[in-house]
Amino acid sequence: MEEITWYRALCFNMPVGPWRSCRERVRRDMIAHDLGSYDEWGTFYVTVPGQIEVRRERVQSRAA
Q1: What distance in Å separates the CA atoms of residue 9 and residue 2, rounded to the nearest whole number?
Q2: For residues 17-29, b (16+ Cβ closer than 10 Å) or e, as one string?
Q3: Backbone φ and ψ of 25, nearest 5°
Q4: What residues contact 31, with CB distance under 8 A and at least 6 apart?
Q5: What predicted TM-score, i.e. pTM, was given to this entire model?
Q6: C-alpha angle with apex 5: 12 to 32, nearest 5 degrees?
Q7: Residue 49, preceding bond cis, omega within 30 degrees?
Q8: Any bridge partners for residue 11, and if so which?
Q9: Which of 3, 29, 48, 61 is deepest in the core (most CB within 10 A)?
Q10: DSSP secondary structure letters along 10-55
């Protein structure tokens, strides 16, 4: 079994982007909707009313 983590940008608990498997891509979604930004040290901040939803799921590996 393998665990996959999915991320999605939200605004007032409503999705504003698709599910992403990469945190960096969901951060770009947040920035595009003015819901997040990086500070001068490179730390990412989500601004109100933004939120990042996280979902983890286990999948069967495709070993041959």
Answers
A1: 24
A2: beebeeeeebbeb
A3: -70, -35
A4: 37
A5: 0.80
A6: 45
A7: yes
A8: 14, 50
A9: 29
A10: EETTEE-S--BS-HHHHHHHHHHTTSEEE-TTS-EEEPTTEEEEEE
Residue type, 13: N
Q: What is the residue-averaged pLDDT of the chain?
A: 92
Q: Extract the tokens encoding 18.
A: 């698709």
Region 27-47 average pLDDT: 95
Amino acid (one-letter) located at 33: H
13: its two tokens: 């608990």
**Residue 34 CA, distance from chain mean position:** 14
